[in-house]
Amino acid sequence: MRRWNGWGDDTIDMPLGAGAQAFLAGRLGQGTRPQDASFEEACARLAPGRLAPHPLVDASPGARLLHALGQSLPDWLRLRHGRIDAAPDGVAYPESAEQVRELLAFAKEQGADVIPYGGGTSVAGHLGVHQTSRPTLSLDMRRMRALVWLDRESQLATFGAGVTGPDLEAQLRAHGYTLGHFPQSFEYSTLGGWIVTRSSGQQSLRYGRIEQLFAGGRVETPGGTLAIPTFPASSAGIDLREMVLGSEGRLGIVTEATVRVSRLPGHEAFHAVFFPDWERALAAVRELAQARLPLSMLRLSNAIETTTMLTLAGHARLVRLLGGWLALRGCGEGKCMLMIGASGAKAQAVPALRAALGIARRYRGVHAGRGLGERWRRNRYRSVYLRNAAWAQGYAIDTVETAVDWPRVTQAMEGIEGAARGALEAMGEKVHAYTHLSHLYPQGASVYSTFVFRLAGNYEADLARWRRLKDSVSTAIVAAGGTISHQHGVGVDHAPWLAAEKGEMGLGAMGALFRHFDPDGRMNPGKLVAP
Amino acid sequence: MRRWNGWGDDTIDMPLGAGAQAFLAGRLGQGTRPQDASFEEACARLAPGRLAPHPLVDASPGARLLHALGQSLPDWLRLRHGRIDAAPDGVAYPESAEQVRELLAFAKEQGADVIPYGGGTSVAGHLGVHQTSRPTLSLDMRRMRALVWLDRESQLATFGAGVTGPDLEAQLRAHGYTLGHFPQSFEYSTLGGWIVTRSSGQQSLRYGRIEQLFAGGRVETPGGTLAIPTFPASSAGIDLREMVLGSEGRLGIVTEATVRVSRLPGHEAFHAVFFPDWERALAAVRELAQARLPLSMLRLSNAIETTTMLTLAGHARLVRLLGGWLALRGCGEGKCMLMIGASGAKAQAVPALRAALGIARRYRGVHAGRGLGERWRRNRYRSVYLRNAAWAQGYAIDTVETAVDWPRVTQAMEGIEGAARGALEAMGEKVHAYTHLSHLYPQGASVYSTFVFRLAGNYEADLARWRRLKDSVSTAIVAAGGTISHQHGVGVDHAPWLAAEKGEMGLGAMGALFRHFDPDGRMNPGKLVAP
After folding, report:
1. pTM, rounded to two decimals
2. CB of B530 within 8 Å of any CB in chain A?
């Protein structure tokens, strides 16, 4: 069963080994195992729901609690400490666009806000109740999950927008197709959620971001239905898809989406390459990205992440052997690991990989074969479970990510890590920070940093630590000229930094769109653009 | 010097040979050579300008006339017949964003509309004066043409938005780069124009449409400056670039744009392949597009276009020899020509071309080598001059284009050509119609049809012929599920058909954006979305 106050399925654990525990204790001090609130305690604290009864609305405390929050660290703190101040007053599971329209009408009649709920995996605070002065209705889209239509000729597939990653891929695989959109949250996140948060998958190098995959669809808004037909391309005015992408629920409910699919790749392999240092690794990945080779993934870890990942992997002897082998080949202390994915027709994927390894060699890259790559592939959705394991040992894990043009990549990485390391100094706490470039473009890269710090053991103190850390690293992102998010979206957590990149005119334009589709301002208010 | 009432430079002529003249006369009847009005006559008919004097504004009749219209067929008719009912009251050539702001303030003070003017190549009526009850100021961007900044590391170049295609490429070539955006209008059209009309170049298969090339920039709007920073990608809310792309001057003046450039290709070649019939050709190009080979161009002419192009090319003996050679190889009467471009590093381009020819062979495609491809490359911007030559013989040439998903491609082509052929029947006139697929996508293709019909010799009758033809083919586009434009934009000519794809909610959303940036509605009113 899915955990109510942590990541993923409760039958899956990725416990930290003794080596990993010692590694964290050595860097941050011993953690204190926290006391989590129970589901029943948290339910009991909820104020009664205020919506009138409706046959489609479940107002039970359990349903309301399960839709109250997402997976951001402040959301976790609220869940773990049982401090859920507000939850939606009811949850509906519509099965059709007609029911969505009915529920929007019901919300209007009740003077209620509406929060669209996909997989509940937001790490930016997209799902919390905005203000408790009005009731809130959560629309859980899980029942709208069918493959409605597959056009093999155009390689287009239309799904109910509530379909999750595995469900979508399984329905496509039966016909020999894939969408190829694999964000870290893949196992729970939904097509509709990917669209409204402008999500990016791990293999976007081949398949594209969700912006490139989203071909059209239907959105039920308080003002009416927005139907977006599919065209291969168009110059007919402003692209309506781009009003939906990144709208974070502010203009309506995506009920159905048509996506561009591909034939299942005949060949797929992930290879690891190590570089002696960051400078060489960075130069190599820039050349790789700008060579536009038909690869499916490029993902570069900096030296601290490389060491951390190899340590947390837990096979001390193997890692030692690998380290010795790499050191002999010039990759010692500061070594950085690059993961290269090649997917597609063998006749294209194999030469692309060969060309990539050739470029890597010119920067003293050492090819370590497929073993680590295979391991990465097998565990690609498992590493999130480390959050649970670290929590159990008294540590919090959080991440931020941005994207910058090439000249700013190192500066952004160092700025973010430096800000994180110093953020809790005044509280006498350390932060272990490490980074990878998760997506590479000819223009630049995304910079994805992870932070581990000790829990204080009480809600206020933990939230204060997170707040200070988040403020520091977000300020560092803006200072480095980065976008406040490359793949997670804005929600409430990133909203204070949005003006830096959108400006007043840009924020106002987004507001004008929201008002057009949602004149009463009831769709996910408070998210993305503060009111 | 540039022609004031026709296409291009007045030292360049592409006269129709005897064979071409006979071809058209056989299909449409003999043309009557028209009597064109002179520049002086047209100037003399202009009403006096109504703007107060301003040091940056040229109110001379010559400047006003040269900015009155674009290159759509109704624009041509007005120019050729000397029937320019309305022209801007003054023309300014700003040299900086500051001057643009000053001119917007002047327009406000004068209660004037503002029409941004790039290269004047619009074929959809983007440049005409909307209503004569208010004065109009034309802002000609030609002086803002400098390469402001080149970031080699990120392959980004920032230009003044008024830079034309050749000027932009020359400035980049000096540094070893190319933008790779080559629309048919390349010689005169501008970067800013490409952006606001969502232009597509002939080699977009490699370089992308302008949507993919436009990384950021600055727009001066009546409401203030919209500055869009560059990121490789972002999930931070709605993409502001997408509000500018396709906005057709309705929200402001693009003063500066940053584009994604590439290193000049080491290798480039264009090859011709002939298929025995449309069905095989279509199946082949669909497979080619979906194989995602790193090619730079795929362009398929249907049988009528293939014959028409070979005939108009004028080398009767060569064409006969080619025809005989192809017939022996199974490509007779219904043969269709595919042009394949491969550009880039030789190590990628050559194998891609080889793979493409392999796919073509499976559909009985006959490789005719590089000769025709070279010829196409040399004449890529010359074929537009046929409009002038045909006019001189008493024929009008017009085009429409759309894009549809694969299952609708043939239906769209036949619908458009059929509608065109029947459009002037009631007037006792024939229309020669032919088509190519100009841009191929995994999802579908653009369908680009050309029409030739006889001129009546007077303005009203010619306009009536065009109106009937345009209505018929536009209705056919909508009936086939196509977008009303794949690469030309909307302007006034396509605006009546826009609601079919945007819906009321979509049109309203565009209007809400325009009002936000331009509360008084003075920016290019009447274009794109009718008021």
Report:
1. 0.97
2. no
**Alpha carbon of A340 to those of A26, A204, A206, A373: distances in Å?**
32, 13, 12, 8
From the list B207, B381, B395, B448, the catalytic residue is B448
Residues B65 and B94 in one domain: yes
DSSP helix/strand/coil, A477: helix
Residue B328 lies inside a defined structural domain of this protein: yes
Instruction: Mark yes or no for CB contact A238/B245 under 8 Å.
Output: yes
Please check whether residue B18 lies inside any domain of the structure: no
Q: What is the largest CA-CA distance in chain B?
A: 72
Q: Which residue in A61, A85, A129 sits closest to A492, CA to CA? A: A129
Contacts of A199 in chain B (CB under 8 A): 235
Could you tell me if B252 lies within 8 Å of chain A, comparing CB atoms? no
Residue B295 belongs to some domain of the structure:
yes
Q: Which DSSP symbol is given to B193? A: H
Token readout for B317 is 């003996």
- Tell me how many domains chain A contains: 3
Domain-terminating residue out of B331, B352, B380: B380
Alpha-carbon span B128 to B138, nearest angstrom: 10
Q: Are residues A104 and A208 in the same domain?
A: no
Q: Which residues of A135-160 are buried (b: 16+ CB within 10 A; e: fewer)?
A: bbbbbbbbebbebeebbeebbbbbbb
Question: Do the Cβ atoms of B29 and B454 come closer than 8 Å?
Answer: yes
Find the helix or strand (DSSP H, E) in which A411 lies. helix A409-423
Phi first, then psi: what are they for A440, rounded to 5°? -115, 135
* Residue pair A93/A56 in contact by the 8 Å Cβ criterion: yes
User: ∠ at Cα B272 (B271, B276), nearest 5°?
Assistant: 150
Residues 95-154 of B with CB under 8 A from A: 151, 153-154
**Element housing B148 (H / E):** strand B147-151
Domain boundary among A140, A161, A193: A140
Q: Which residue has the higher pLDDT, B524 or A312?
A: B524
Residue B246 forms contact with A (CB below 8 Å): yes
Tens-place pLDDT, residues A259-282: 999 999 999 999 999 999 999 999
Q: Does one domain contain both A241 and A192?
A: yes
Nearest neighbour of A154 by CB, restricted to B443, B494, B529: B443
Q: How confident is the model at residue A317 (pLDDT cuts 50, 70, 90)?
A: confident
Structure ipTM: 0.97
pLDDT at B95 over 80: yes
Q: How far is A226 from chain B (nearest CA, A)?
A: 6
**Minimal CA separation from A254 to chain B, in Å:** 14
DSSP secondary structure letters along A512-524 = HHHHHH-TT--BS
Please indicate if any CB of chain A lies within 8 Å of the CB of B485. yes
Q: Which domain holds residue B314?
A: 267-380
Cα first-last separation, chain A? 37
C-alpha neighbours within 13 Å on the C-beta side of residue A485: 30
Nearest Cα residue in chain A from B490 = A236
Based on the fold, state whether residues B330 and B400 are members of the same structural domain. no
